[in-house]
Amino acid sequence: MGQTLVDDGRHGLLMMKTVSSYRHRARNCLMETTFFAKISQFQQIDEILPTRPYNGVQGFLPDPAVSAVAISVLTMRPERKTMEQRPIEMPDETTVAPPSRQPVLRRINEAQRALEYLLFNVDREADAQARFLDVAGKLIAAVEDGPDIALAAILHNQDEGSYAVRHCIDTAVVAMLVARALDKLPHQILAIVAGALTMNIGMLHKHEQLQGRLNAISNDELAAIHAHPQEGVDILRRAGITDEEWLDCVLLHHENEDGSGYPFGRSGDDIPLNVKIIALADRYCARVSSRSYRRSLLPIEALRDILLADHQIVDPMLTACFIRVAGMYPTGAVVRLASGEIGVVAGKGSDSTAPAVQVLVGVDGVLLAAPLRRDTGVAGFGVREMLSGEQAGVRFRMWQVWGEDARA
Fold first, then answer.
1. What total number of domains does the chain contain?
2. Per-residue pLDDT tens for 263-302?
3. Which of 42, 200, 220, 244 has its Cα between 20 and 30 A from that of 360?
4. What's the whole-model pTM score?
């Protein structure tokens, strides 16, 4: 990957150009990407990235190890437009006819229950490969029908089932969306999703034990963690799984870009791109999920953590791709607007920093009778900050924001 930083002669304006090494595999997200960034538009940039002068211009020049694409996505502040804001009534059971198919969220939950049974009973299945692929296919279809609902479920469906199984579903959702953005072929997406769904089959029982403990793990438990990728592959092979691309995803999903991962310490191009996609999704979903021993991170905190703290072990170009898919404020994030209103991100907006938001709490702090849809690209309604559910002090059901397809 090559990077060029050019002063175009206009005051305070730099051009950053990043050429992706992924070529045609990443053309939609990463290929020949050019960003123009006014230095004066960066807000609190020093809290996100280290800065230093370039050619006499006080701007930012990123650490070479960090992708210019990812930095730009996290820091650009587009100009705000003005337009009239109009309220939108939320669907309810009397005004919206039920969909002809099952709701997206219900299908995701059904896939999770089917996956849980398979993971714990794989040795009794006559055709485990077909059963796992059937679950993967149904999950892919549900996400295709409702990508916003699938992303929101990662944040707002955490009480559904055990963490160990739900985490595999969440990881598969993120991995699928990134793979689709990278123009992966259908059979490759299926292998990626199947790999994510089965990545932790080698430590299912340990997973729940570790989730519930408060003290440090023992040396024996650490050894079991490091052994679970190979153990998982062994279990799947005994069950009749023969797809090597799928098995590689299970075996290598804890390998790191800098060679610090396990079980083999592979690095860089020795790690398949499909595996890197799952590794990124795994890290993100783990960070935004609450655990017994730590609080969940806000999505924006998780993204910055991966992009900055983990930039040597996670390919930052893939992080940039995920941000372009989900936005800087991913669907489901709770936010406070410049107007003082509080709402939830309902989907992507005009760009990665201006999502569509359903406002739930008005400027006076009172819960609204019907949510208002805000375009955060409009002046006065930009996102001021992201909030936790506790900070926002508001609870809601997913169908209130995303309609009947978000009923469980």
1. 3
2. 999 999 999 999 999 999 999 999 999 776 678 899 999 9
3. 42
4. 0.79
Q: How many residues does the structure list for the chain?
A: 408
pLDDT tens per residue across span 350-376? 887 899 999 999 999 999 988 999 999
**Does any domain span residue 96?**
no
Q: Are residues 29 and 108 in the same domain?
A: no
pLDDT number for residue 100: 65
Q: Are residues 208 and 306 in the same domain?
A: yes
Q: How does residue 97 score in pLDDT terms, banded at 50, 70 and 90?
A: very low
Shared domain check, 345 and 307: no
Looking at residues 216-245, what average pLDDT do you find?
91
Tell me what pLDDT residue 292 has: 64
254 in the same domain as 146:
yes
